Hints:
This protein is α/β, with parallel strands linked by helices. The protein has helices spanning 11-20, 62-67, 88-96, 108-121, 165-168, 171-188, 211-220, and strands at 2-4, 25-28, 32-35, 52-54, 77-81, 99-105, 126-129, 144-150, 192-202, 224-233, 255-262.
Amino acid sequence: MLRVNERRLSRDECLRRWIQAGIDAEPIGRSGVQLARSQPVTRLPGFAEGWFSVQDGAAQQAAPLLLGGLEPAGPRLRLLDACAAPGGKTAHLLEWVDADVLALDVDAARIRRVQENLGRLGLQARIEVADAAEPTTWWDGQAFDGILLDAPCTASGIVRRHPDVRWLRRDRDVAALAQQQARLLQALWPLLRPGGRLLYCTCSVFKAEGQEQVQAFLARHKEAQLLPSPGHLLPGQAGRHPSLPDNLGREHDGFFYALLQRGAP
Ligand SMILES: C[S@@+](CC[C@H](N)C(=O)[O-])C[C@H]1O[C@@H](n2cnc3c(N)ncnc32)[C@H](O)[C@@H]1O
């Protein structure tokens, strides 16, 4: 699935140009487009010009969930994308709002792709290689209005596209990754301003990396509120979730989303 960069052109204009060029595609959600036939995206009109990105439909829910109703405390919205590479969701945030975005990733090779992707799309963020769970090494002390924590996970939700995930993972990985996720949540939570929001997500279908992780967090943080959130999104169940009425095609990755608010707004 593709996501149209609405900073460059509207989704309908993009579809019109592609249909003129003989490319059959249909709209999904606000900015999504599903091609009728798979083809190399770099050869589609507008790739180099940054008209669009490749992004799964479930992943396209992140930016709208975090940004919906989120107001800046200061003159501009301050956002942290804590695990940003290769930058799919960073770009989506920037396509939707004018904001100061800090994009971090611990992997120096992967973070170069954030720069490349934002460059092609004509977007800008501050990009740093850092361990998000060690804020003393990178945080300037100014609280964020919003934090996206797209945490490292087993990627069990993307097996339909990457069937090898089943063989690349071991049972013990779930517990080890759940521990990393808890460490990131714990370290990033205090960086939010009161009333600020943190969107926790993983492309996993395992409850240990989703619902159970968030329940344990809420038990430790009485000042945290769980706002209406999709929870576990399973392929084939789109359209049935009340918070995502018609925005998702049925063919999407397994994903988990929890939107947490720090104290009263
Ligand atoms: C699910 S991927 C992020 C995908 C990205 N948000 C996107 O939409 O394109 C998780 C990322 O977390 C990074 N990561 C893992 N541990 C981290 C840490 N302690 N601090 C920052 N990044 C971390 C990994 O290198 C990986 O790029």
